[in-house]
Design a protein that fits this description.
The complex is a heterodimer of chains A (about 130) and B (about 140).
Chain A lengths: L21 H37 L5 H17 L6 H15 L6 H20 L7
Chain B lengths: L11 E5 L3 H15 L2 E5 L2 H11 L3 E5 L7 H10 L8 E5 L4 H10 L3 E4 L7 H9 L6
Parallel strand pairs in B: 1-2, 1-3, 3-4, 4-5
Helix pairs in contact in B: 2-3
The chains are: A mainly alpha (about 130), B alpha/beta (about 140).
């Protein structure tokens, strides 16, 4: 279930019914854009954690601590990327979280299969130089 | 006061989340869209202390936190006379059905999901808590 509003529906304001005013939307957009600039490096670091864990898993070298870090990073990315206007990022992070949550983590084959998703996630975050929300 | 003469009520919301990004986005959202007062805590322990002192109208509580997770924090809030009356909304990125049922069984006021839309978060909270008079 998603909290995102259906397409073309004006976002409901604080009372849950009346639409959010345009100037309020613009102000929030500006504030979120500033916050994305601050957060982007942290987000990129989480993606790097996932890529390193995937490489280790592919070589059969991912230990429990590394797997726990990967689960934590994937979970955080899944929660935050959609909020910053990157819903595809949330989808990809969920794929990674599911893979690393498997008992004993992904084996070499699953780790290899995870590579395209993490490459796409990396590229998506690198391309999002500015806030992607509407 | 609204243009049509009705009075709004300013709410105070406590956000408990270990993730800086989520705390800040949620705070900006609730302050900007709704004009609510926001109090922040970065752990379950700090959240319980803040809830007791600040007496918020509602608590937005993250599920997955180190040391004390959301469900444990919720049970401690409900066991404390100073905070047991405050409605708690769980905020989670967990989308699996069993997780959702487990959280619902705790007795929380609502479960909200990450990622959330910053423009509609305040409206969601108002809707689930039946606040029709919020600023």
């Amino acid at each position: 279930m998603s909290n995102l509003p259906p397409d073309h529906a004006p976002p409901a304001g604080a009372d849950g019914n009346s639409p959010v005013r345009d100037d309020t939307q613009q102000k929030l957009h500006q504030l979120l854009a500033g916050l994305w600039e601050q957060s982007r490096n942290t987000v990129a670091a989480h993606v790097e954690t996932l890529q390193q864990a995937r490489t280790l898993a592919e070589n059969g070298q991912l230990d429990d601590a590394g797997r726990a870090r990967a689960i934590d990073s994937a979970h955080k990315l899944a929660g935050v990327l959609g909020t910053f206007g990157l819903p595809r990022g949330t989808e990809l992070a969920r794929v990674a979280e599911e893979a690393f949550r498997e008992p004993a983590g992904p084996g070499p084959q699953k780790a290899e299969a995870l590579r395209p998703a993490l490459d796409e996630l990396h590229n998506l975050v690198q391309a999002a130089v500015t806030y992607q929300g509407s | 006061m609204k243009a049509d003469g009705e009075y709004f009520v300013t709410r105070r919301i406590l956000i408990i989340d270990d993730e800086d990004d989520i705390r800040q986005v949620a705070a900006l959202s609730l302050e900007t869209v709704a004009g609510w007062d926001v109090v922040l805590a970065n752990s379950g322990k700090q959240g319980i202390e803040r809830a007791s002192v600040e007496q918020p109208d509602a608590i937005l509580l993250d599920v997955m936190m180190p040391e004390m997770d959301g469900p444990t924090t919720f049970l401690k809030l409900k066991a404390n006379q100073k905070t047991s009356h405050i409605p708690v909304l769980l905020l989670t990125a967990k989308v699996q059905g069993p997780d959702q049922r487990r959280f619902a069984d705790l007795g929380v006021a609502a479960i909200l999901f990450k990622p959330f839309d910053p423009l509609t978060l305040a409206g969601q909270i108002s809707s689930v808590l039946g606040w029709k008079d919020s600023a």
